[in-house]
Model the fold of this input.
Amino acid sequence: MYCFKHPFRRTKCLFWVIILIFIGCEEPVSPTVKLDSALITHFTLIQEGKTGSARVRIRQRIEEKGESAQPLFLMGLSYHKEKKYTKAADWFERAAKFDLPEDQYPPTWHFLGWSYYYLGEIEKSTRAFETFLSIQPNEGDSFFALGLLAMDSGDRIAAKEYYKKSIAFQQDNPKGQAKAMARLGDVLVVDNPNAAREMYLQSLSLDPDLYEAWYRLAKTYKQNDAELFQKYLQKSKEAKLRVTQKKHNTSFPE
Amino acid sequence: MKYLVFILCLVGCSDVAQDQNASPFLFTEVETVIAPTVCGAADPTQIIEVNGTGLGLFDYDNDGDLDLFVVNASDQPCRLYENISSGSIAFQDVTKEKGIDIKRWANGVAVGDVNGDGFEDLYVTCFGENVLLLNNEGDSFTDVTKQAGVGDDRWGTSAAFGDLDNDGDLDLYVCNYLQFDTQNPPPRAKYKGVSVLGGPHGLTPEKDIVYENIGGGVFRDVTESWQLDATAAFSLNVVILDVNDDGWQDVYVGNDSMANNLFLNQQKKETTFRDIATRSGAAANGDGSMQATMGIAVADIDNNGMPDFFTTNFSSDTNTLQLNDGTYFEDRTKLFGLGLLSRTLLGWSCGFHDFDLDGDEDLLVVNGHVYPEATLASMDSERAQPLLWMSRVGDRFRKVSTTLGEKNYRDRAAVFGDLDGDGDTDVIVAQRSGPVRVLRNDVVGRRPLVIHLEGQAMGARLKITLDDGSVVSRWNHSGGGFQSSAFTDPTFTFPLGRYPKKLEITWGDGDRQVVGNLPRKGDFTLLQKN
Done:
């Protein structure tokens, strides 16, 4: 709804969809939307992991042109990329204060939600995702996050619905769908291991690197099929190795 | 008159409103003579300084109250404090008087009666040779390490006693952390882009060691012959208890950033164990990720009669609750509300106890970051952190405040027990190189049933069936507290209107016994039949 009412907003929406994909994926994705050239540079630097350099430039831009939603959002995004969620949340909060329709930046709420999620702030996280969905009701990753939050609040029924919506709204994002399917499997596994298995397998057909789904699939066979248990456990180890080889860069597990 | 009644109603209403918001946990910090702990510099620069030191809570002189042993590193003396509470909680330093002279880099302590004389002895883990202190019937302690053959000289962290071969005496499991050369410490590392002290990654993990008590005050190394020689790991904690209710003691080991071990006792004539952690699901969390297990708490969270494990972990991760169905473990952290809220905390000792005497077990976790550089801005986690108090409400745990307020500490160790004999559970918490705090529980409520066990109490499992058929279980296990140990009487508080029908006990040496006619509250002494 938000995107299709105004051409200007449509451009913005396209940009943030690309940002969401960029954050969700390990492979950098180039923005294809037309942006202020200075902001494209900032965004590219963040993509490349040159977050410090990006921040220097963003600060310069803010000093020159004053605060506005997009540069503040990118400041937050740079810390989010570093997994420094307290700082990220601070900047996203500042960005979120620009609530005029022509200056509001919807992805801020989404990333604010994730930042609070990683800080264990369940209520703030939920509120941010809900705000985001009030602007963009079909965003699958926010539904995925709400599913996780519902699970943490012990509400399996709500979690199930959120994961289903997440799957439905991510038809063009197989990795996002895979994550939601794996978590839906977690809801199902308590009462219905067969349905959970099916969901894990569907998830893994979309993203075989999802090591936690292999692990949970293995555990569904722990009591009745030692061979499958070992097979899927091994798949989990292999997937984890693939994933950690791609991304690990600190000397302590995070 | 009407006006007065109206005012009284208002006052009454106001009180009710206040009560609804009041914390269920009423604690007061008590001033004592207990000296601060010492473990390296105020701001640690090496990994050897970060774990802090442990506490031991036990009745060394069998006078009916709980005394305290405080471990210190940095060649500072470990100290024994006698409980001299009378009306209010008080301790007296009796270290010298009792002949205790341990000045080295000590880390943790395990409590257990190794010679069966009815007096609890102490095993102190160190960086360097560990120490066994024999309790001379409460009069003094004697260092018998050499005679006993238990002076492992690696980096010992936690240790636990248990009758692993069901022969009636206590054997000993000792966790070893890693190989560390004080003259050649590892280079600094990066964590979240911040320069921090190096390790454990990049350092060589150590194997644990297990001693069989062969009588006559002598132990022998049975790590290999009992098949407890798992791959070397950064071991930080161990708990010994009967995990699957087969009458044999099992061993759960918490490792730092590596898979945990669950050694199941094979109940053979020749004692052997098998590590079933991976197969059972106890090795990792529900995502299959290995965690940095520090504290281990044990309780029957789902009332199925089996011990469940709660472990505390590093910041930017969550604590983990693993429910045990007797054979397999399932990560149910989220469903019980114990996940996200621990992400900014780095947890250490923890324990399930009924702090508000309402009949179910609540949870306390003590926290503090290992890196002095830790701030919310740099690591999403402060160096000093609050206690995490969780109240059990139905099928969930809820974070609650206490009358202590929310202050931040650099805590590591905690022990739990009734220090003043009023029936509730008090807490002693130790910071790393900092004050030891005594938290007196001031709850006013139902008086619990306290069971004094006379027999092989360590490792005993108690299961009480109530008049409505429901079951309440406790494990008098050894270990679990991070580098700490408490040997206290099991307590039960029953839900309103419910009465205990029978107690089934499996003693630490496997003997089983059933007892009826239990009181609902007060003290009850149970003697082992055989």
